Amino acid sequence: MSKIAVALVSGGLDSATALAIAQRAGYAVHALTFDYGQRHAIEIERARRICRGAGVASHRVAPLDLRWIGGSALTADIEPPKDRPLGAIAEGIPVTYVPARNTIFLAAALGLAETLGAFDIFLGVNALDYSGYPDCRPEFLAAFERLANLATKAGVEGAGQFRVHAPLLHLTKAEIIRQAVALGVDLGATHSCYDPTPAGRPCGRCDSCLLRAKGFAEAGLSDPAFGAD
Q1: Measured at the alpha carbon of residue 125, what is the angle toward residues 220 and 42, in degrees to the nearest 5?
Q2: 78-82, 123-127, 132-136: lowest mean pLDDT where?
């Protein structure tokens, strides 16, 4: 019988790679994507495309509108930063930070995992080539894992130990891309841009586009997303 896991799949490069790593490790993966009112809603369709191609056990797209919280360039009428020097991207917490997003997403993934009888949750957060988000740090993930085992019936009754897997946490973007290629991830299906055009094309100027371009350049590869449908 296959091991069961829940994976957060955003439609981005990192989460698609984390999904592939979970499957390679022998997990039957139940994917979870959130329609949270993000301006880059094309990522939801990309998540569907990635999950279809990966043959996941199931894929849920959960409505969870965070626009009522606001406070982010991804969920409110705030322009994402553009054309920032790479050195500036890693300084401070940018306006693209969505308040408590990973806490909320992981809590929902935890509830789904407990319902499915799964004890493993995968996500594609990264603490090296990232934009300063506090909920992408190893300290946060370790704290949430402790919470998961304290706050659930399965954890309290000793049915198993919940584990939060962040296999990309200490990799550079170039290393993630190389691993994705080795795993056969359809990188052309992934979407990273914070402010895509109405046709869904990446802007090439936001922090996420710049970090992605840096990663592909350092990996010595061209980005197939620019030829994606």
Answers
A1: 80
A2: 132-136
Q: Which two tokens stand for residue 35?
A: 């329609």
139-193 confidence digits (pLDDT tens) = 999 999 999 999 999 999 999 999 999 999 999 999 999 999 999 999 999 999 9
- Domain definitions of the chain by residue range: 3-227
Domain 3-227 class, CATH top level = alpha beta
Question: Considering only CA atoms, which of 64, 77, 9 is closest in space to residue 37?
Answer: 64
Contact 188, 227 (CB under 8 A): yes
Say how far apart CA 145 and CA 180 lie, in whole Å.
Answer: 26
Residue pair 6/121 in contact by the 8 Å Cβ criterion: yes
Given a cut of 80, whether residue 229 has pLDDT beyond it is no
CA dist., res. 204 & res. 198, Å (int) = 14
CB atoms within 10 A of CB 64: 13
Handedness of CA 101, 104, 106, 112 (dihedral sign): negative
Please tell me the distance from the alpha carbon of residue 59 to that of residue 7, in angstroms, as a whole number.
9
Contact 29, 7 (CB under 8 A): yes
